[in-house]
Amino acid sequence: MAHATVPKYRELRQPNRDGVNGFGNRFGTDDRPGSPFPPPGSIPDVNTYQQKKNLAQGMMDLALLSANANQMRYVLESSTSHPYFYPSLVFISLNVIFQIAVGVGLIMNSRYDVKDEKEICKADKINNMTVLGIFLITIVNVFITSFSVATPTAVSAVGAAVVQQAG
Q: What is the domain partition of the chain in residue ranges?
């Protein structure tokens, strides 16, 4: 007696239906995005990982740079009433310089092929310098916060502004 073969999943599907949500493939190909998680046992491409990591760090650096530019603008506008004008200006300027250096390091690091043995050493050195730069940015941001913008809150009887530390 011949054994009946069990039809496979694909044979059970109706034409132009995918069997999951009822929508068929458009234009004859499956153009839906794949899962963000690779199938088990597959090794992700290291270069793709590095480029995504650099892009995420670059976006964070850009957001922090715009926040520091806004802080610098405020400190420069309130130069006469700001009790910590010079320390704030120095720390914010130093932070902007570090952020530009980290941005350049991220751009340089994304250009190396980390699968190539010759380039892996250069990429590692630049990556270490970038991590050091991010650490310095964090430390300088702590000082920026400690010398944060002071705001005048009340006027005393003599007419001098009483300054209260913001934050």
A: 47-165
The token pair at 105 is 């390091």
Q: What is the pLDDT of residue 24?
A: 56
Indicate the pTM of the whole model: 0.58
3-state secondary structure of 154: strand
- What is the mean predicted confidence (pLDDT) over 58-87? 83
Q: What is the mean pLDDT of residues 121-134?
A: 89
For the chain, the distance separating the N- and C-terminal CA atoms, rounded to the nearest angstrom, is 84
Q: Are 96 and 76 in contact (CB under 8 A)?
A: no
Bridge partner residues of 154 (DSSP) = 162
Cα(80)–Cα(9) distance, integer angstroms: 75
3-state helix, strand, coil in the chain (%, to 5): 55, 5, 35
Residues 6+ apart with CB under 8 A from 36: none
Look up residue 139 and give its two tokens. Answer: 């430390």
Q: Which two tokens stand for residue 140?
A: 């300088």
